[in-house]
Amino acid sequence: MKTRLATATILAFALVPAATAAAPTPARLQVSGDEFSLALSRASIRKGQAIIELVNYGEDDHDLALRRIGGARTYRVGVVEPGQTGSLAARFRPGRFTLWCTLADHRTRGMRATLTVR
Among residues 52, 50, 55, which one has the least CA distance to residue 38? Predict the structure, then answer.
């Protein structure tokens, strides 16, 4: 009797899906910056939670701003000194995003890129 009950209990737990599914791993994007360009590690990421990392390979300070085209919210990675890295964790909706360095005239000199969130 105990053996049948134990077997039934084990089968019941094996057939029932977990009540809480594991959260998906955040998408990751590395943005390399130098004088005066931004290079993305990939052209698109999936919607939802993401980690954006700015690596400053240049000789000047740089930062990073991201805004969905047509959107009002601007995401930011603060000032990153030469040879350092800064990051941002946020949830992104689908769309095309403009990325740029906000310091001095860096954007007009070429520090801009476009990212697609699908």
Answer: 55
Cis check for the bond before 92: say yes or no (omega within 30 of 0).
no
Tell me which residue has tokens 């809480």: 20
Residue 20, in any domain of the structure: no
CATH at 78: 2.60.40.420
In 10 A of CB 63, how many CB atoms? 19
64: β partners = 77
Residues 71-86: tens digit of each pLDDT = 999 999 999 999 999 9
Exposure of 8 by Cβ count < 10 A (0-12 exposed, 13-18 middle, 19+ buried)? exposed
Q: What is the per-residue pLDDT for 2? A: 52
pTM (predicted TM-score): 0.80
